[in-house]
Design goal:
The complex is a heterodimer of chains A (about 300) and B (about 270). Chain A is an all-alpha fold and about 300 residues long. Chain A has a single domain (about 60-280), classed as Orthogonal Bundle (MetI-like fold), CATH 1.10.3720.10. In chain A, about 70% of the residues lie in helices and about 0% in strands. Chain A has helices at about 25-50, 55-60, 65-95, 100-115, 120-125, 130, 145-150, 150-175, 180-190, 195-225, 235-245, 250-280, 290-300; strands at about 135, 145. Chain A has a two-stranded antiparallel sheet. The longest helix of chain A has about 30 residues, at about 65-95. Chain A is flat, with a radius of gyration of 28 Å. Chain A starts with about 25 loop residues before the first helix and ends in a 9-residue tail after the last helix. With about 270 residues, chain B is an alpha/beta fold. The longest helix of chain B has 16 residues, at about 195-210. The radius of gyration of chain B is 20 Å and the shape is globular. Classes of the chains: A mainly alpha (about 300), B alpha/beta (about 270). The interface of A and B includes residues 186, 187 and 283 of A. Chain A: One of its GO terms (molecular function) is transmembrane transporter activity. Chain A: It is a multi-pass membrane protein.
Chain lengths: ~300, ~270
């Protein structure tokens, strides 16, 4: 393993007597220029092609109908996600149950709702009155008219929420199973009940595993709400469709909707980072920096005074 | 009728031993790991269970607070049969929550500490007394800080377990168990997962605890600790108790061949 190192006659081998030559990366420059050229061409075409209709985009960007549509999109996202998470936790616990009937029921639920397209599920809920004209829940005295209860919005919430629960249950189950068995044993040895062990010890730790995919589900849900445009629920996409069906400015209004989707998902992505940081507490010696910290660090490093510090 | 005056005065009635295990059996599938364990531990006694891994000593310890369900025999802790309710001539298996309620006066320390990583040290100590025993917060807090001082970790009350060394984590785990004010403490190889230089600080805390008169059952490979602290040492092999007696006798002058073989391997 040892090798002979020739020591210069002067007798010193300190770094100071040498000049450090940084490594060159010519291919980085080539790749960078090529990609930049493509991006610039796309931008030029986007600006110069009048059919993009950017003036129409800015005209309709803050249209009342569009803003109301964003409101409904956000409402649907939050309500369906909340329903999905709550039902998902219940399903996950059922799947881990020792009771075979409970366990099989939860698995069947997951199989059915994950195995069918959510668009089909939405149409089913929308047409529920064809299946059950009167909803009684089997309780005498309860007699509800399905046509009145299952409004397009209700069908949207049922369809998206119940579908989401199936996906969330898998995420929660994976989170619960990622926690070391010793945690439940320690809680049990301290006399904590099953519910206390789950809510105080297991779930708070499982959150670290559950939050990142749930954030992705949340953003996925935001985009999935556009599916309920087929039920004529005036969310963001359907609001845009109503406008372009009248003025035929299809592309500008789809751009308006897309830009809003990007803005909202970006805001949520930043929020997700803060949430992950919160639940990482106690698990690692240093938590990843938040966006604000990264921005501050960026300006500290790239400021005029900071530039020399890297050397 | 003559009265025999030579009869010795009646011996003072010995209180029942705190832990009484009778014919405890336990199998994992086909593999019978406990083949009838009889052991009594009096209140205030420190008993060390020694033996090779696979001898069943940890499994037996876990039976004492019903982390493992026993297949035969009975373990009594105080007045209660662990895991069962006795009604007439029937043993009713307890529900999970009944078992949990019975565990509150048995503290347990694990090989891998099993602290709750998302809670601070102080929160680890206070969790069960607050949630399970429903004690008052101020009172629990005072007791928890007091215990942290006793294990030498007052400065770490607000630290998370991840930021502590293994030895510190195990001392917190001992304090957490003691915060429930148990009558009996079970230690399952408390120093086996520690770096050698950290073993001493944990053993010192356990020694201090033994001196306060706590009843302790300790599964350990630390023969020095067993010799110095244990009132009694129990050697297990193949799911049976092979030899038991005062520490200096079992370790210093083992009678059974297997005990001798084991001790010569570890000492």
């Amino acid at each position: 393993m040892s090798s002979v190192v020739s020591v210069p006659e002067t007798g010193t081998t300190s770094r100071e007597q040498f000049t450090v030559v940084p490594a060159r990366h010519p291919w980085r420059w080539v790749a960078g220029i090529a990609v930049a050229a493509v991006v610039i061409m796309l931008l030029i075409s986007a600006v110069s092609n009048p059919r993009f209709g950017w003036d129409k985009v800015s005209l309709y960007f803050r249209d009342v109908a569009i803003v109301d549509g964003i409101g409904i999109t956000l409402f649907l996202t939050v309500v369906c996600m909340a329903a999905g998470v709550m039902l998902g936790v219940v399903l996950a616990v059922m799947q881990l149950s020792a009771n075979p009937v409970v366990k099989a029921s939860a698995s069947a639920y997951v199989t059915i709702f994950r195995g069918t397209p959510v668009l089909v599920q939405l149409l089913f809920w929308f047409n529920l009155s064809a299946l059950y004209p009167e909803i009684t829940f089997g309780i005498p005295g309860v007699n509800l008219d399905a046509n009145q209860i299952i409004t397009p919005l209700a069908a949207a919430i049922l369809g998206l929420g119940l579908n989401e629960a199936a996906y969330m249950s898998e995420i929660v189950r994976a989170g619960i199973q990622s926690i070391d068995q010793g945690q439940a044993e320690a809680a049990g040895a301290l006399g904590m009940s099953r519910i206390q062990t789950l809510t105080r010890v297991i779930l708070p730790q499982a959150m670290r595993v559950i939050i990142p995919p749930t954030g992705n589900e949340f953003i996925g849900m935001l985009k999935m709400t556009s599916l309920v445009s087929v039920l004529a629920v005036p969310e963001l996409l359907y609001s845009a469709q109503i406008i372009y069906s009248k003025n035929l400015q299809v592309i500008p209004l789809l751009l308006v909707a897309s830009i809003w989707y990007i803005i909202v998902t970006t805001v949520f992505t930043v929020g997700q980072g803060y949430l992950e940081r919160h639940f990482a507490r106690g698990t690692s010696r240093s938590t990843p920096p938040t966006l604000a910290e990264r921005v501050r660090k960026f300006f500290a490093v790239h400021s005029a005074q900071g530039l020399g510090k890297g050397k | 009728m003559t009265i025999d005056t030579t009869m010795p005065p009646a011996a003072p009635i010995e209180p029942l031993p705190l832990v009484r295990a009778h014919g405890v059996r336990k199998s994992f599938g086909e593999n019978e790991v406990l083949k009838g364990i009889d052991l009594e531990v009096r209140s205030g006694e420190v008993v060390c269970l020694i033996g090779a891994s696979g001898s069943g000593k940890s499994t037996f310890l876990r039976c004492v607070n019903h982390l493992e369900k026993i297949d035969g025999g009975l373990v009594w802790v105080g007045e209660r049969a662990v895991g069962y309710r006795i009604k007439g001539d029937k043993l009713h298996e307890q529900s999970h929550n009944e078992i949990c309620a019975d565990r509150t006066d048995i503290g347990m320390v694990f090989q891998h500490f099993n602290l709750f990583p998302h809670m601070t040290v102080l929160e680890n100590l206070m969790e069960a007394p607050l949630r399970v025993l429903k004690q008052r917060k101020a009172e629990v807090r005072r007791r928890a800080l007091d215990l942290l001082e006793k294990v030498g970790l007052s400065a770490k009350a607000d630290a998370y377990p991840r930021h502590l060394s293994g030895g510190q984590q195990q001392r917190v785990a001992i304090a957490r168990a003691l915060c429930m004010q148990p009558k009996l403490m079970l230690f399952d190889e408390p120093t086996s997962a520690l770096d050698p230089e950290l073993v001493g600080e944990v053993l010192r805390v356990m020694k201090d605890l033994a001196r306060t008169g706590m009843t302790m059952i300790v599964v350990t490979h630390e023969m020095g600790f067993a010799r110095d602290v244990a009132d009694r040492v129990v050697f297990m092999h193949g799911g049976r108790i092979i030899e038991e007696g005062p520490a200096e006798e079992v370790i210093g002058n083992p009678q059974h061949e297997r005990t001798r073989a084991f001790l010569s391997a570890v000492l």
